[in-house]
Write a structure and sequence with these properties.
This protein has a seven-stranded mixed beta sheet, with helices on both faces. By secondary structure, it is α+β, with helices and mostly antiparallel strands. It is built from six helices and seven strands; from the N terminus they run E-H-H-H-E-E-E-H-E-H-E-E-H. The termini are close together.
């Protein structure tokens, strides 16, 4: 366990924070899908994706202040191929750049391998988001490749970097 950060399962009580965070420009500018999040859409996600086990989503807690500061999740959990996609957002601007994201990533990775039995955890990140890439590397993710012009947002193509961590790497000391 990390002494500075913990993660706890997301509940309906977190809806207001999730909606506020996801609709903050500094958060949604790093998302591929940028449609404003409504309370109804979030509750639909919670009930139809999280509660069904397709997604494991957690709230990131800054242990120093006790405040909820963001969310980390494992989505599209594929039990047959033992893989899932990792995602994170730090919703509170004042909490970025303090290592909270890297610490939360390590906790989510531990959960993926220990509790979900995954073999591979992967992510996609905008190629120009150097701060996030550095954080992911710190958490143990390795660069796998760049998909050129992979997504188009408002008519502009963006390159996406794909990264992953494998169970064997995690077992060898990344954890």
């Amino acid at each position: 366990m990390n002494k500075n950060v913990t993660i706890r399962p997301m509940t309906e009580a977190d809806t207001a924070n999730i909606v506020r965070w996801r609709n903050t420009p500094s958060v949604y500018e790093h998302f591929i899908y940028r449609t404003p999040l409504t309370e109804e859409a979030h509750l639909n996600w919670l009930h139809n994706r999280v509660e069904t086990g397709d997604v494991a989503q957690f709230i990131i807690v800054d242990n120093e202040s006790g405040a909820d500061v963001g969310s980390v999740y494992l989505r599209d959990i594929d039990k047959q191929h033992k893989k899932c996609e990792y995602g994170i957002f730090i919703g509170e601007d004042s909490c970025r750049g303090k290592g909270i994201g890297s610490a939360a990533a390590k906790l989510a990775i531990d959960y993926a391998f220990e509790k979900l039995g995954m073999n591979r955890v992967f992510l996609r990140v905008f190629a120009d988001n150097k701060q996030a890439i550095k954080s992911y590397e710190k958490a143990g993710f390795k660069y796998e490749g760049t998909f050129r012009d992979d997504v188009i947002i408002d008519g502009t193509p963006y390159d996406m970097v794909f990264m992953a961590i494998l169970r064997e790497e995690w077992e060898k000391g990344v954890k």
